């Protein structure tokens, strides 16, 4: 049974190239802020949060929950978004919820392309550098039908796919000129954004009682972080 009244949310999305924040009051997006410039999350996010909180104060409402895109995605972007969300929870007493970045992309895709066959499969893909992507399968209804995984794109990838498969997200372009199957469709330009679809997932988390422990929650990186930087000499 769903709640009669929706929580007031601050939505934070920093897992990909776009930094975005939205304020949702009683189930509706009231204001939203975004910066499409890459690698500007640390600069843009504090300003967006400040504007959203000011809007909430002007409306005399309190933020009851912070929803953050929990990955997989950019290591740096995820750390910036999650650390900001946790800091806000500590400061305001708001609850913390996370949404799957891959599910968010899938939901945004099915909203834009809403006339797909019911048996089609959606595979959002997030760039994981070189020919690797983070990906997961979803039904047209938005339900997951596989676990999130890393995948290296090769000519054999999806070669035996028999159903209509839609690849979307920042990693989908890696399949162009590599994957050769008339059942596979590559859709570019679908990015995770703090919007109505993210609010849907945040509300589902609340309805299912899926709140995160503010002290111990970490993003879903999916794979370990590697760096070529040399350690500082002692």
SSE order and pairing:
Elements: E1 9-13, E2 19-25, E3 28-35, H1 41-58, E4 65-69, H2 75-92, E5 95-99, H3 101-112, E6 121-127, E7 132-135, E8 138-139, E9 149-152, E10 165-168, E11 184-187, H4 196-207
Parallel strand pairs: 1-4, 4-5, 6-10, 10-11
Antiparallel strand pairs: 1-2, 2-3, 6-7, 6-8, 7-9
What is the number of E strands?
11
CATH superfamily of the largest domain: ATPase, nucleotide binding domain
- The average pLDDT value, as a whole number, equals 93
What's the shape?
Answer: globular
Annotated CATH topology of the largest domain? Nucleotidyltransferase, domain 5
Judged by helices, strands and strand pairing, the structural class is: alpha/beta
Quick structural overview:
The chain is of the alpha/beta class.
Short key terms for the protein model shown above:
Nucleotidyltransferase, domain 5; alpha/beta; globular; 234 residues
Describe this structure in words.
By secondary structure, this protein is an alpha/beta fold. Strands 6, 7, 8, 9, 10 and 11 form a 6-stranded mixed β-sheet that branches. The C terminus is likely disordered. 43% of the residues are buried. The protein has 2 domains: 109 residues, Nucleotidyltransferase, domain 5 (2-Layer Sandwich), CATH 3.30.420.40; 86 residues, Nucleotidyltransferase, domain 5, CATH 3.30.420. Helices cover 26% and strands 24% of the residues. It is globular and about 55 Å long.
